[in-house]
Target: Prephenate dehydrogenase
Amino acid sequence: MFEKVALIGIGLIGSSIARAIKEKNLADHIAISTRSQKTLDRAKELGLGDSYNIDPTEVVRDADLVIICAPVGAYEAIGKQIAPHLKTGAILSDVGSVKEHVVKALEPHVPDGVHFIPGHPIAGTENSGPEAGFASLFDGKWCILTPIEGTDQDALHRLRDLWVAFGSDVEILDAKHHDMVLAITSHVPHLIAYNIVGTADHLESVTKSEVIKFSAGGFRDFTRIAASDPEMWRDVFLTNREAVMEMLGRFSEDLSMLQRAVRFGDGEMLEELFTRTRNIRRSIIDAGQETDVPDFGRHVSAVEDESGA
Amino acid sequence: MFEKVALIGIGLIGSSIARAIKEKNLADHIAISTRSQKTLDRAKELGLGDSYNIDPTEVVRDADLVIICAPVGAYEAIGKQIAPHLKTGAILSDVGSVKEHVVKALEPHVPDGVHFIPGHPIAGTENSGPEAGFASLFDGKWCILTPIEGTDQDALHRLRDLWVAFGSDVEILDAKHHDMVLAITSHVPHLIAYNIVGTADHLESVTKSEVIKFSAGGFRDFTRIAASDPEMWRDVFLTNREAVMEMLGRFSEDLSMLQRAVRFGDGEMLEELFTRTRNIRRSIIDAGQETDVPDFGRHVSAVEDESGA
Ligand SMILES: NC(=O)c1ccc[n+]([C@@H]2O[C@H](COP(=O)([O-])OP(=O)(O)OC[C@H]3O[C@@H](n4cnc5c(N)ncnc54)[C@H](OP(=O)(O)O)[C@@H]3O)[C@@H](O)[C@H]2O)c1
Ligand SMILES: NC(=O)c1ccc[n+]([C@@H]2O[C@H](COP(=O)([O-])OP(=O)(O)OC[C@H]3O[C@@H](n4cnc5c(N)ncnc54)[C@H](OP(=O)(O)O)[C@@H]3O)[C@@H](O)[C@H]2O)c1
Model:
């Protein structure tokens, strides 16, 4: 499918792409670069690629596809550095969780003849680093591409086909709209998960060991989300500020209403909301974006554990 | 262990208790009552008990252990109704998610010679009804008992031993403190999960189908929590108002700080919080309250699904 794919950044997402490409034989050569020698060595030990270089300008040379898989705050510097070394006709893409900022940070540096097509797979786990990835991460998940005006259709199709080969469904969205959708489906949920875990961490009336001990009542599931990579998420909030602020404003307004309902004992309002939210989950399961396996009891995981899987 | 156990309410928790008692042979007879004939018939079809009666006064007759497994808002009426029919020496317990209110609602009705010991298993799933239960739900989970002053130690030990037989670790807490701990580890997390799902449901800038489609970025995990039983959760918020309001106040204060950090681009503050919250998750895994299986990608569930489990 591609001759040489260059990956810059080889954490959860980069290493999952490398594994998926290898497993499905979608490129002749995978070249890997990352920030630290330590991670580069680890990637080599794991056999994720065919060549490794700490210098990104070296790995992009002759690559017909370059995918930036680093936190979005690092994009501008990476873009500036690699731009002069990109091959004419190459596709430059990425996987960043924010898209308008990525266009602003990269587009000015992209040389003529290079096809710049931003992307974002809606798939992930709370783990990070090169060990965390797996080839099936994108299988059955959506990948959003946010091509800019005048994007070469051939290049777009080639990139789309790669994600389809990973098992993803591909959706084309405007970058600004992407950022709004992700603010509510991902960024604000992460922010409030981080927030409640932070709140629980510095209470005086309840000890930390009690929080940990009795976390199975719901809190645990927030800590899972709040265990995601700090650097990646810092960059998401720094670069999608406007949409996050807007959605957070809506969330806070609604929370004030709910707080009033609790204060004044408005059981009807509470039950109405709790019934409505139940239906949304049903829709998500019906849309194939979730399994129906009950998970609070974690008995599925437990069974897996016991069987040694 | 017991001669006759009476269960009033046979949803997720009640039916899990019935299944655990049967599986481990912990009582000679399980008598079941619930609000609706429909659920009672379903419990019978599922073979959850040995006798069934819509009238709770009938099932508690001669029972040496009665466990109320209904939403806490129904407790007072149930307590009044069954009290005159409780056997001397019997233990009256429950599983309600709130404890101070339960003591207030039940204690005045408990006849002399009956041992009233409130309880709360910290285990559950987002599903409800008699089909949702399973015998291993309490295995490896905590169960909190909140005995009132002067509780008979023999009775307390008998009840504790039952939960231990279910596989639970038992902790004794003061009812008021229980409500504070659960407000932060369970009630407020549920409230904010319900809230964000509600917010997403009535946006104009992002369609409901987009929210559903791209829910795998984090939102999905909130819908799981926000799919819990509306009646049960309504009652929790109506009966643990004070502690919920206090913890919600703390949450909102912290969220305002976080909002400022986003607005002013304070990356250091964000990264510091995101790093701190990561450590709490580590502690929860170390405490055995969570498995280390990455779950956002839901590949564990997917594997289970494929194997037909
Ligand atoms: N995690 C998710 O759920 C998810 C989902 C969709 C998209 N994304 C996006 O995917 C991207 C990567 O996230 P991830 O989850 O894979 O993070 P990760 O596991 O933390 O990996 C990040 C990788 O980027 C490298 N890196 C950091 N700064 C760099 C720089 N200046 N130059 C080159 N490499 C650099 C890191 O290198 P060192 O280890 O060498 O420092 C590491 O290999 C982010 O933009 C994120 O927004 C994440
Ligand atoms: N779900 C959890 O995660 C969880 C965890 C720990 C503790 N709890 C506590 O466990 C209790 C039960 O919750 P659940 O999850 O098992 O709920 P559920 O699955 O919705 O079941 C509730 C049961 O209570 C019955 N019921 C309702 N009102 C009643 C009344 N007035 N008299 C007799 N029975 C009545 C229902 O009967 P019908 O179907 O006949 O109407 C149903 O059988 C609640 O107090 C809850 O706070 C829940």
Q: What stands out?
A: Residues 175-201 of chain B form the longest helix (27 residues).
